[in-house]
């Protein structure tokens, strides 16, 4: 059964713009793909493992060794997170802007699953290989912000949110990426901007 995995990076619940738009997407997706499974992974639920010992395990693997003890347990937890991430044919991310970039819990997930042999390989002459490419996985990302917006000057901040996250997706080999944006800014028409974002989400979900 095909699966859509919604990975959410906002802890704000009903007050979250990114979650609200993502729910619009998943509702429309469900209507259009009745037999597909939809799973929600809330990154704030404690399921993303700590990676202090995992970072040591990563270097052990890089060196050709096998993690042992605490490192082995951390490596196994990271592998479970990766398998959950990689299990879906369709991925939806809801990503609010935090201080110009992504919430730290999303960066934690990225650091946990971005491991040699899982997401990337590396050759001393050719550089990185992108191990998730060629799977046919499609990705949709809901980007939201409150102050920064397209066309505003640097006094309103910078977009390290989508630039960073899109670069990471492409680095993994996931290149079929669609964006849904909600940037009402401080002086914009918030309700109309939301309606436009939700309309885009519904339309995209129908054929996703």
Automatic annotation (TrEMBL):
Its EC number is 1.6.5.-, 1.7.1.17. The keyword Protease does not apply. InterPro entries: Flavodoxin_fold (IPR003680), Flavoprotein-like_sf (IPR029039), FMN-dep_NADH:Q_OxRdtase_AzoR1 (IPR050104), NADH:quinone_OxRdtase_FMN_depd (IPR023048). Residues 3-203 form the Flavodoxin-like fold domain. FMN binds at residues 10, 16-18. It comes from the Bacteria. Pfam families: Flavodoxin_2. Keywords: Flavoprotein, FMN, NAD, Oxidoreductase. One of its GO terms (molecular function) is oxidoreductase activity. Binds 1 FMN per subunit. Its cofactor is FMN. It catalyses: N,N-dimethyl-1,4-phenylenediamine + anthranilate + 2 NAD(+) = 2-(4-dimethylaminophenyl)diazenylbenzoate + 2 NADH + 2 H(+); 2 a quinone + NADH + H(+) = 2 a 1,4-benzosemiquinone + NAD(+). Quinone reductase that provides resistance to thiol-specific stress caused by electrophilic quinones. Also exhibits azoreductase activity. Catalyzes the reductive cleavage of the azo bond in aromatic azo compounds to the corresponding amines. HAMAP family: Azoreductase_type1. Homodimer. Belongs to the azoreductase type 1 family. This is FMN dependent NADH:quinone oxidoreductase. It comes from Nonomuraea coxensis DSM 45129. The gene is azoR2.
């Amino acid at each position: 059964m095909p699966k859509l995995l919604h990975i959410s990076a906002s802890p704000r619940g009903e007050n979250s713009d990114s979650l609200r738009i993502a729910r619009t997407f998943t509702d429309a997706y469900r209507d259009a793909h009745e037999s597909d499974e939809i799973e929600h992974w809330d990154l704030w639920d404690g399921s993303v493992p700590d990676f202090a010992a995992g970072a040591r395990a990563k270097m052990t693997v890089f060196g050709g060794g096998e993690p042992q003890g605490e490192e082995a347990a951390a490596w196994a937890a990271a592998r479970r997170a990766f398998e959950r991430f990689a299990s879906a044919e369709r991925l939806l991310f809801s990503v609010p802007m935090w201080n110009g970039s992504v919430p730290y819990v999303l960066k934690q997930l990225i650091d946990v699953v971005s491991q040699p042999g899982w997401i990337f390989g590396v050759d001393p002459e050719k550089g990185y290989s992108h191990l998730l490419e060629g799977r046919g996985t499609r990705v949709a990302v809901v980007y939201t912000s409150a102050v920064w917006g397209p066309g505003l000057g640097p006094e309103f901040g910078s977009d390290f949110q989508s630039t960073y996250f899109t670069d990471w997706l492409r680095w993994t080999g996931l290149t079929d990426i669609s964006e849904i944006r909600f940037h009402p800014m401080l002086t914009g028409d918030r309700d109309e901007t939301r309606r436009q974002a939700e309309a885009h989400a519904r339309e995209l979900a129908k054929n996703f």
